[in-house]
């Protein structure tokens, strides 16, 4: 197995269902750089709880398929106190033995009227052919001056690998109706001894489309279809690969907040 789940994968599971003061669901993202609006800091009730159940057809992180076969089920619980969020996520392979736990916290804040940021920590424990663990520190920023186009930047540092991973994304949110929103996105990633030590630089390019449908005031159904294109870091890691190093995958999530 390659690198474990990053903070971005966890948090993307949680926040499709976060509600604002009018009890309308925020839109989020489900790409590898996750997420455009990860947590609705400063909106809604002072304390909120988020529960999420999901499934991905493949377990993709850092542009790599982490399981030999099948996809993965996810379950997430998060508690948000103003701008501080505590979360726990468990993943389980649907076709092979693999269990992963992620536990952490995130604090969000505003740098300006149009620039928001968040910092956090998570602990990862995984059980498969062998047991793995890691500690990760992460930070994200997003710029919201343009209504239809949101650039974001994500940084993750792994204490186990002693390296970091950077993801730059563009999301374009398009309301189709009062309940349905489509969000195409593109993401460029860079690996600096986070996954591999042999190469620092471009890791993979990813693009896709996300959809969110508000079933009720506090219940959201979301999904995505994504494509990854391997770049130099992945190619150097697999010099003898005979098949394609690119991946296409999809996922569905049902999120409830209260």
Task: List its salient traits.
globular, mainly beta, two-stranded antiparallel ribbon, 15 strands, twelve-stranded antiparallel β-barrel, disordered N terminus, 258 residues
- Beta-strand fraction estimate: over 45%
H and E string: HEEEEEEEEEEEEEEHE
What global shape is seen?
Answer: globular
Number of strands: 15
C-alpha Rg (nearest Å): 17 Å
Q: Gap between N and C termini, in Å?
A: 36 Å
Please characterize this protein's 3D structure.
The chain is globular and about 50 Å long. The strands form two sheets. Strands 1-4-5-6-7-8-9-10-12-13-14-15 form a twelve-stranded antiparallel β-barrel. It has a two-stranded antiparallel sheet with strand order 2-3. It is built from two helices and 15 strands. It has 258 residues and is mainly beta. It is 5% helix and 56% strand.
Outline the secondary-structure elements:
Elements: H1 7-14, E1 47-56, E2 60-61, E3 64-65, E4 72-81, E5 84-93, E6 99-110, E7 115-127, E8 131-143, E9 150-158, E10 163-171, E11 174-175, E12 180-192, E13 200-216, E14 219-230, H2 232-237, E15 247-257
Antiparallel strand pairs: 1-4, 1-15, 2-3, 4-5, 5-6, 6-7, 7-8, 8-9, 9-10, 10-12, 11-12, 12-13, 13-14, 14-15
Short description:
Helices cover 5% and strands 56% of the residues. With 258 residues, it is mostly beta strands.
